[in-house]
Amino acid sequence: MNLARLGHTCVVGLHWGDEGKGKIVDLLTEHFDIVVRYNGGGNAGHTVLIGNEKFALHLLPVGVLSRDRTAVVGPGVAVDLGRMIEELDALAARGIVVGEHLRISDRAHVVMPYHKKQDMLSENALGAKKIGTTARGIGPCYADKMQRATAIRVADLLNENVLHEKITRIVERKNRIFAALYDDREPLDAEAIVAEYRGYAERLAGNVCDSTRFLLEAMDAGQRLLFEGANGTLLDIDHGTFPFVTSSTTSAIGVPAGAGVPPQTIQACVGVTKAYTTRVGAGPFPSELHNEIGQYIRDRGHEYGTTTGRPRRCGWFDAVAGRYSARLTGATVLAVMHLDTLSGLEQVGVCTGYRTPDGPLPGMVADAALLEQAEPVIEYLPGWPEDLREARSIEQLPSTTRRYLDRIEELMGVELAIVSVGPERTQTLMRK
Ligand code: IMP
Fold this sequence. Notes:
The protein is of the alpha/beta class. The protein has helices at residues 21-29, 81-93, 113-126, 138-147, 154-157, 160-182, 190-204, 211-220, 254-260, 292-300, 319-329, 368-373, 399-412; strands at residues 9-13, 34-37, 46-50, 53-57, 70-73, 78-79, 102-105, 109-110, 208-209, 225-228, 268-274, 277-279, 313-315, 317-318, 333-337, 347-356, 359-360, 375-382, 415-420, 428-430. Residues 16-18, 43-45, 131-134, 136, 138-139, 230-231, 235, 244, 246-247, 280-281 line the site of inosinic acid.
């Protein structure tokens, strides 16, 4: 893959998030001028290792780690300003001062304290039926966006009178809803929230802009954009395993709306997947391993959530789900991450179909209950005992490992371009 020649590119996860998109975005950033987040919010967790330094970002685009690149938080992001400032301060403490390289869309919606509270109250009330959200207020924030009358956008923060009127009215309404629905007896204090958010506005006012105009002008000037997807295609609000999804358009379909660019902008899409599959939270996962192999993968792959610390559910590579996502999101090349994690297994499985007592399923069906019941059809390939972490080219990998990669490529129907065998930048193998 010739990175220097890629046009405007999007990096998207092909399963349920945590595929390793952060590392790919970090690798690609030097070939682009602007990195744009277009969906999600503090629910995402992108971890990047640079030298010995580990950076975990939730709100800030990974592009902020490159000093001379501009990072844009687009209108489709649910922005948690307090958390964003914490991330900026943590980076500054490590010598990375972002300054004006960060641009925040004035059209983006703001996550408010009552969104986080509502997320928790609603999940608790659902009991065994809960979605297992990250409790970052994502669903309630997007719900208010669609509701409109109860939404707050970044632009509102810059107008003191508008902000005061909105927060006072909305908090009064939310307090009544929480008391009535959840018997909540700890009303939120509107004045304290106004003061808190005015403080955020003062701190970030210089970063707020009309990011849509900014990106259109940048493209006119010949600059190249990299779109950083958050979460994963199977968590997409419309096309994922609903209702066990997040509340934004996570696939590449979300780029035009969430970033504010014309649909034909995307020229390449890197579909990122792990060499096995994971999921956090509730919902169908047909190839999940409830045994010691699942635990082996979890331990070797450090499969614990970046955002919540929850142990991730681990399973064989799901090619049914992966192929569905790759087609939907328009993946033009494939990046397979965490290949080193699978070393030491006698055989490795790939899920090539789903079946139920009533017969095989045609693929990723809409009915989550049906998917919950589905048994995976697993094809086994020989494993490999070798440690892959020192490999520096795909040719150096054992023949069994290459066979596994070939099979994944074949089942996905997308050309394999990148393989990762460890967290470091140097542990990335590019197909020429
Ligand atoms: P929410 O986005 O916090 O509402 O969570 C909805 C579902 O999406 C839950 O199952 C979360 O665990 C999952 N989820 C949201 N963001 C991510 C992510 O970045 N990685 C993995 N799972 C995620």
